[in-house]
């Protein structure tokens, strides 16, 4: 139907908006029924993109959207991309330790293995050593 088409458009736009859009744009797209779990051809979700681009305010907007709509929105915090990477994996790989507490408190699974069998903890340890 028309509603689902509009929702799909908003979902695609949401994913595209994350890198540079303001948090207001993100909220507007969520109001237009963008699917928070929509995945692009690489399996990226809005949350994975928000973590990748370090857009904490977008992460918070996504989480807030779920809190405001507990019966209709189920934000999948362990949704993975094509490489089996969850938002927590991405944060660990990018060395975004500042984003990890927010993800951990949002029920991200620290023991979830990616396609290589690495957990977010493995990535964090590996990247921590690489930095030091």
TrEMBL record:
Organism: Alexandrium andersonii
Cited Pfam families: Ank_2, Ank_4
Keywords for the protein's UniProt record, in alphabetical order: ANK repeat, Repeat
ANK repeats: 83-115
Protein's recorded name: Uncharacterized protein
InterPro entries in alphabetical order: Ankyrin_rpt, Ankyrin_rpt-contain_sf
Domain of life: Eukaryota
């Amino acid at each position: 139907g028309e509603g689902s088409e509009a929702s799909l458009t908003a979902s695609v736009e949401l994913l595209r908006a994350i890198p540079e859009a303001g948090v207001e744009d993100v909220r507007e797209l969520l109001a237009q029924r963008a699917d928070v779990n929509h995945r692009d051809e690489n399996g990226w979700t809005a949350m994975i993109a928000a973590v990748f681009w370090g857009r904490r305010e977008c992460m918070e907007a996504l989480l807030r959207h779920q809190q405001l709509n507990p019966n209709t929105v189920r934000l999948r915090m362990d949704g993975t991309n094509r490489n089996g990477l969850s938002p927590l994996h991405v944060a660990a790989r990018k060395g975004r330790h500042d984003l990890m507490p927010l993800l951990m408190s949002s029920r991200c699974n620290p023991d979830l293995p990616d396609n290589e069998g690495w957990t977010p903890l493995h990535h964090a340890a590996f990247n921590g050593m690489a930095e030091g």
